């Protein structure tokens, strides 16, 4: 992101300073360009933030001793879906020679995270680990929104210059700038989308281990 933030102002300022007067001024003989103008696609705008809005990422990680890991795992999978989330991975293992265990990773709505945590606690015989954490990415998100706005302005200036350029060699140079600008716009949009998706669903990771069986008494 630092590369984008340092490159965008320079490119935007350069495009803003350019005008149809000078080397890129169309000539009277420019009936058609040797190189066709590229199509500048407009990425979808990210959700704007209000002055007091925050973008928070939330994570929950829990490890428990339970009586039957596979049974608890099946129950948790159902609860995750009922809560409006989805399971990203789930696995279980059992053997007659060792204790059973199961693991689940899911994404769930933030407001349903407390209820799901209580559901696991209700089924636990012993808590091994229970942690929650959050990350405020509001500043990073706002910075990306500013970058997106700068890129949009640069895109409009570049589109104007491309439409007015009469020299084929100048047009080819502007098309190279277009490709760089497009890559930057796609990168910013991808980061914004990733932040939105991460904030919309919290991480919910569970590890379940079977209670160790007591050895039979010596006769």
Description:
The structure is a single chain. By secondary structure, this protein is of the alpha+beta class. The protein has a domain at 57-137 and 201-210. 46% of the residues lie in helices and 24% in strands. The protein has helices spanning 2-17, 69-82, 113-122, 138-164, 168-200, and strands spanning 56-66, 86-95, 98-108, 126-136, 202-210. The chain has a five-stranded mixed beta sheet with strand order 2-3-5-1-4. A hairpin with a 2-residue loop joins strand 2 (86-95) and strand 3 (98-108). The longest helix has 33 residues, at 168-200. Mean pLDDT is 79; it is low at 1-9 and 19-44.
Spatial order of the strands forming the largest sheet: 2-3-5-1-4
Fraction of residues in H or I helices: 40-55%
Q: State which percent range the strand residues make up.
A: 15-25%
Structural class: alpha+beta
Report how far apart the termini are: 69 Å
The number of strands is: 5
The major sheet is characterized as:
5 strands, mixed
Contiguous runs where pLDDT drops below 50 for at least 5 residues: 1-9, 19-44
Shape: elongated
Characteristic terms for this protein:
single chain; alpha+beta; 219 residues; disordered N terminus; elongated; 5-stranded mixed beta sheet
Present the secondary structure layout.
Layout: H1 2-17, E1 56-66, H2 69-82, E2 86-95, E3 98-108, H3 113-122, E4 126-136, H4 138-164, H5 168-200, E5 202-210
Parallel strand pairs: 1-5
Antiparallel strand pairs: 1-4, 2-3, 3-5
Helix pairs in contact: 1-4, 4-5
């Amino acid at each position: 992101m630092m590369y984008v933030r340092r490159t965008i102002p320079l490119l935007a300022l350069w495009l803003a300073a350019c005008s149809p007067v000078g080397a890129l001024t169309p000539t009277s003989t420019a009936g058609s360009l040797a190189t066709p103008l590229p199509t500048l696609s407009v990425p979808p705008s990210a959700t704007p933030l209000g002055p007091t809005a925050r973008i928070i990422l939330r994570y929950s990680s829990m490890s428990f001793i339970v009586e039957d890991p596979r049974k608890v795992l099946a129950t948790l999978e159902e609860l995750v879906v009922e809560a409006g989330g989805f399971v990203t991975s789930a696995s279980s293992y059992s053997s007659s020679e060792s204790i059973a265990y199961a693991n689940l990773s899911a994404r769930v709505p933030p407001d349903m995270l407390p209820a799901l945590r209580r559901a696991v606690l209700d089924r636990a015989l012993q808590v091994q680990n229970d942690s929650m954490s959050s990350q405020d990415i509001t500043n990073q998100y706002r910075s990306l929104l500013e970058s997106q706005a700068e890129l949009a302005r640069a895109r409009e200036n570049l589109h104007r210059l491309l439409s007015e350029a009469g020299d084929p060699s100048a047009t080819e140079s502007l098309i190279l700038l277009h490709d760089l600008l497009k890559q930057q716009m796609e990168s910013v949009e991808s980061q914004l989308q990733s932040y939105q998706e991460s904030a919309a669903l919290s991480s919910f990771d569970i590890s379940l281990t079977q209670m160790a069986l007591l050895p039979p008494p010596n006769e």
